[in-house]
Amino acid sequence: MSALTYGYQDDHHFLFDPSWFTKIEARHFAPSYWLEQGAVLGQAQGRGTTYFVRYDKGNLVLRHYRRGGIPGKLLTDQYLYPGLEHTRPWRELKLLSWMQSQGLPVPTPVAAHVHRSGLIYRGDILLSMIPNSHDLHRCLCEGAVGEDIWQEVGRVIAKMHALQVCHSDLNIHNLMLDDSGKIWLIDFDRCEKRQGQGWKKDNLARLKRSLEKEQGRMPDYHWQAQQWSSLMAGYNEQTGC
Known about the structure:
- It is built from 7 helices and 13 strands.
- It is α+β, with helices and mostly antiparallel strands.
- The protein folds into 2 domains: 124 residues; 107 residues, Transferase(Phosphotransferase), domain 1 (Orthogonal Bundle).
- The longest helix is centred in the C-terminal third of the chain and has 20 residues.
- The radius of gyration is 18 Å and the shape is globular.
- The mean pLDDT is 94.
């Protein structure tokens, strides 16, 4: 991965990997641009729409930053501008770049975009698409996942925690499984490196609650409480506990 490069265009600011884009512009963060190219491969709904797009150097994921909860109903995608280094796209792209350099299985960070307008900004991020993968929630909707996979989930989370990275939304939707059996971690918006140890138990508890929630919603959800023991076995094996 190349060193991240800064660029700008009027009130648009970019942080990008030049091995992916020799020149990047605001249009590359507009879904309409990719739609006009006939390059949109699919979409996913969350707080907003995430677009999966075809690109000659590798397929990409385009995500626009949107607020959640009550603030999201009022401000939708507007954030108070705190300086580029503290904007959400900048922080997520840099964190992903560092985590990838440490060997964590995360998407390759491609580019971040901040559009400043006075005291507010809007933002977007482009990431490489993880090939031949599905989120673990979808996998559990379709069938059971082997104990070896649950152990690997635990090991990957332990590796993240060993680097003192706190995933602010560690849930079953933010774990990906590819067709080789590899586990990936995604969606690092608002995540950070954090000191101490106590938050790690809270991180794991959040993931367990998401599994229990989905199990309660779906009677045919292929997860059983005893599989948590397999996950924790992998976690403890990695941490040496």
